[in-house]
Amino acid sequence: MTRDEALSLFLKYNHDSFHLRHALTVEGVMKWFAGELGYAREADFWGNAGLLHDIDFEAFPEEHCRKAPELLHNAGADKALIHAVCSHGWNLTVAIRPEHKMEKVLYAIDELTGLVWATALMRPSKSVQDLELKSVCKKFRSRGFAAGCSREVIEAGADMLGLELDDLIAKTILAMRACENFVSREMARINH
After folding, report:
1. Average pLDDT over all residues of the chain
2. Rounded CA separation 170/140 (Å)
3. pTM for this one?
4. Separation CA 37–CA 23 (nearest Å)
5. What is the CA 52 to chain-centroid distance, rounded?
6. What is the largest CA-CA distance in the chain?
7. Which three-class secondary structure state does DSSP give residue 94?
């Protein structure tokens, strides 16, 4: 599946700009991690998994990660992409455990990108470019802040990857910095 096909498929079931920004951010972060972890040749696949990970969330919220296999299969996605997309709902909505390094990264950074973005929005710049690790860590400990971002999933994802929590957060901030302009350009292009 090409990136354009993945984006068209995502947009078929998702229209909310919040969900689109999240999908584009996770796509960019996944591609960054692919390069960082020695999977640069698979970066497009990692990006597509990130882009499509919430394909069923907006249209079928009660069937999140359970409707995705049908939607993806009908669009011609291969089994590896379907497994990757569904595994980010492990122990939340499905029993599909992340196995590949890419799936573990997706599981770890899905909730974390939301927390990092919410923290960035509190800053005057509304950007991750000047966001510091200590700011995100402080917000991480404040359970009332971005309460929908599961700290337990983020911690489990860090453990799954064998990373200290601070290291995972720092890398995710770097990844979000690297893709922030791309996400903004894509948002503008799609919304016109």
Report:
1. 96
2. 13
3. 0.96
4. 21
5. 9
6. 44
7. strand
| Tens digits of residue pLDDT in 101-124 | 999 999 999 999 999 999 999 999
Taken in order of first residue, the domains within the chain and their CATH numbers are 3-190 (1.10.3210)
**For residue 162, what are the CA distances in angstroms to 30, 108, 128, 165, 187?**
17, 11, 25, 9, 33
Residues in the chain: 192
The residue among 12, 1, 88, 83 whose CA lies nearest residue 45 is 1
| Whether pLDDT at 143 is above 90 | no
> Could you give phi then psi for residue 144, rounded to 5 degrees?
-80, -20
If phi > 0 it is left, if psi is from -120 to 50 it is alpha, else beta; for residue 15 that is alpha
Q: How many helices (H) and strands (E) in the chain?
A: 9, 0
